[in-house]
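A note from the maintainers: we've had questions about how concatenated examples are separated. There is no special marker in the raw files; a new sequence line simply starts the next protein. For clarity in this README we add a label.
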Amino acid sequence: MSANEDQEMELEALRSIYEGDESFRELSPVSFQYRIGENGDPKAFLIEISWTETYPQTPPIISMNAFFNNTISSAVKQSILAKLQEAVEVNLGTAMTYTLFEYAKDNKEQFMENHQPVNSTIPISSIISVETPNTAPSSKKKEKKEQLSKAQKRKLADKTDHKGELPRGWNWVDVVKHLSKTGSKDDE
């Protein structure tokens, strides 16, 4: 079988095995991610496996550079990658993506035994300085809204309908005056 046929068969197998598994994610037909550990688990990590053109005769590219792994020290990442590379060498020439994901799941505790969460993120409160404006009543006077008299309110209400809108054609006199002053070019 050619490398492409092997890859197609493995792709079908991975899709059927991990169907409905929230930890598995197919990034492309040759690149996959798997979260080892539950969501919210401080020892959870993400492995990304990408197939080369000649995979499985040549080793896949294994990465732990996902943002999800930011709290894992580079020493622990290197240790996990080294152990996974050993498994790759044992399985070279065969479909191994599933085997690598399962190997990582089975050895999660051993992989993460030296894990001390690295706080590589900066708390939002230190990035954004929240300032409350000084609202002293003496420093700023609130602008008073113009008050209408009863007569003004009544006149305004008479001009508008019950929704507060002016009736259609309310300014027709103004339009006629404007047109008579400017003169229409059709008259010439």
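[label: protein 2]
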Amino acid sequence: MAEGEPLALTYIPEVILKKRKHKEESIALTRKNQLELGQHGGKKKKVDDIKRPEQLVREFRDKELDLIRMKQRTKRAKSGLSIPNSKLLFVIRIHGKNDMHPKTRNILYKLRLTRIFHGVFLKATPGVLELLQKVEPYVTYGYPNVKNVRDLIYKKGYGKIDNKRVPLVDNNIIEQALGKHGIVCLEDVVHEVANAGPHFKEIVSFLGSFSLNRPKEGLLGKKALYKDGGDTGNRENQINDLINKMN
């Protein structure tokens, strides 16, 4: 090639040029959407997360009011605690977020109710009933029948092994965790829970809480007691209807 002669341009097919253009436009559009959603930079998200002084004051007052009401419920005569018709309770957390006092949250966590629409099996002891009375506006409970105990364990049950949630798909999992207590299969678990047997504590500790579905109907969003037309407190045998809607 003679010196000074211009280099020939490389030919690029039109199809490739169109693909490049489409890719660049797609990247630009994705970047724009990410910025709008606050996934990068986060300016919009941070502004939304800033709480106004009046909101902070309102939340503080709500939490203090929650503590006062808890103390008032605790002062009720212990004779006011109704004697349960069953040794077994199923408790569902249905309320509670920003308006809870830390003491209320601690009790819910003690009951293993760390999230809304999670449920746990508990023995109906005086100590448990006192705790439920303290967090009454945030939970509902009652006496589950054997059918619902079985359905919850089979459909929603997970076991905790090495701090990991493991689906109960194999009886070997049960035997590995609870075999030393003579419990080697799911039916043994159901029987022990339904009858609040001697190894109830070990089983519910292994099972953890049950993640339930938000019901389309059955909850009114009211913190009044169930017997007064609200959602909370003791539903007795009516808890089975709610379990069916959430399972």
